[in-house]
Design goal:
Largest sheet: 3 strands, antiparallel
Number of strands: 12
Distance between the termini: 57 Å
Shape: elongated
Structural class: alpha+beta
Strand content: 15-25%
Radius of gyration: 31 Å
Oligomer: single chain
Strand order of the largest sheet: 5-6-7
Helix content: 40-55%
């Protein structure tokens, strides 16, 4: 059953481009959550199968995803590579051999000394741009500091052939080119060294409180202020920050956009055709289906009113299922369903419900009931009140 579920998941992935549907024919699609786990599983299966058929001792073999490093006699290199490539025609390996007693592997350069010992150095490819997260990029300061600290850790841990001063100079040059200041770089280096030399730190809490993890969008000045308040009042909450200005905004989308009427999990606004009012609603189904429901209810009431006005009056309460229908019945107005606009889209229902209340609160000409915002937190109410009154 598990294998059948995986096959179904992999065979049902598709996208639309210029009106044409494309399906993944081989392997897994980029971005598929299953891809990393299945790639690792395939590599383990491949190695187990191939190594069983190789009759020579292999001193060591290390793997990181699809990158392998091993030691082999020179005359057996092609034999082993051919065995790996024969496992599947879609999985083909290239081979990089030791050159001048050096062999790069991931971010590390292995160097064989004259004493037949292995020392390592931090390594970057010749085509590497030298860029990491720039200090002036639109990201939370904590992410920039963590990026720089992570880079310092890689250089110090991987460069066993360098002195401490050489490591510091390498780090300084790299971070200066990414607009980190000299004073900040020195503080980060000293903090890293002190943290790794002090190995006797004690844990003050034997039973730490379980952590809760939440994320916030990064808004300059606002997000750090909110984070301070949350950290002060809820020390067990661990915050993460998401950047809203990503590289995705710079590139055109290759996949066709989902038509407006086929979008799900949206907040929509339907303008009235006879006045300045509008109706704001939320739907988790396709928007066209929700609008079809509105249209059907309006048409049923109109047909009943035209055929039997008295009966329509008697059954008015049955049709007043939404504020939209109340406006139609009490004011005899029509709604411009084709003019519907999507205000928000989010796959989280809780977020949609809050956003719907926010839009109803801010729209002074909506026909929605004021009670629709009764569950809106006073924190949001105060903030939205300031926004609607033009305060900043």
């Amino acid at each position: 059953m598990f294998i059948e579920l995986i096959k179904f998941n992999l065979s049902s992935s598709y996208f639309v481009h210029r009106g044409n549907f494309y399906c993944q024919k081989s392997g897994t699609a980029m971005g598929n959550p299953l891809s990393p786990a299945l790639a690792d599983l395939v590599m383990e299966t491949l190695l187990d199968h191939v190594l069983e058929g190789i009759d020579i001792p292999i001193p060591f073999l290390k793997k990181y995803v699809d990158d392998l490093i091993t030691a082999l006699p020179i005359d057996m290199i092609e034999h082993v590579r051919n065995a790996l490539n024969e496992f599947n025609s879609h999985i083909q390996f290239t081979c990089e051999m030791e050159n001048n007693n050096q062999l790069p592997y991931l971010d590390m350069l292995l160097i064989r000394t004259a004493q037949q010992k292995i020392v390592t150095d931090w390594y970057k490819k010749p085509v590497a741009s030298g860029r990491i997260l720039n200090y002036f990029s639109f990201h939370p300061l904590t992410q920039k500091l963590n990026t720089a600290t992570g880079f310092i850790g890689r250089v110090f841990k991987l460069s066993t052939c360098r002195s401490e001063n050489e490591k510091k100079e390498l780090v300084r040059d790299y971070l200066l080119n990414n607009n980190y200041s000299s004073s900040l770089i020195n503080r980060l280096i000293n903090r890293y060294i002190n943290k790794n030399t002090n190995t006797h730190e004690s844990n003050s809490s034997t039973h730490p409180e379980p952590k809760m993890y939440r994320s916030l969008h990064h808004v300059e000045k606002l997000t750090p202020a909110l984070a301070k308040v949350i950290n002060r009042n809820f020390p067990n909450v661990q915050l993460g920050f998401k950047c809203v200005k990503t590289n995705r905004l710079l590139f055109s989308k290759l996949k066709d956009a989902t038509p407006q009427l086929e979008k799900r999990n949206v907040i929509y606004r339907i303008p009235c055709a006879d006045c300045d009012c509008a109706y704001i609603g939320l739907t988790t189904q396709q928007l066209k289906n929700r609008l079809s429901g509105h249209r059907s209810l309006i048409n049923r009431y109109a047909d009943l009113k035209s055929s039997d006005p008295n009966r329509a009056t008697e059954r008015e309460e049955e049709f007043k299922k939404t504020a939209l229908m109340v406006h139609v019945i009490e004011n005899e107005h029509r709604f411009d369903l084709p003019g519907t606009k999507i205000l928000e889209q989010d796959n989280r229902l809780n977020a949609l419900q809050v956003l719907e209340m926010c839009h109803i609160f801010c729209d002074t000409k909506t026909v929605n009931y004021r009670t629709d915002t009764s569950n809106l937190s006073v924190v949001y109410s105060g903030l939205l009140h300031s926004i609607t009154n033009g305060e900043r």
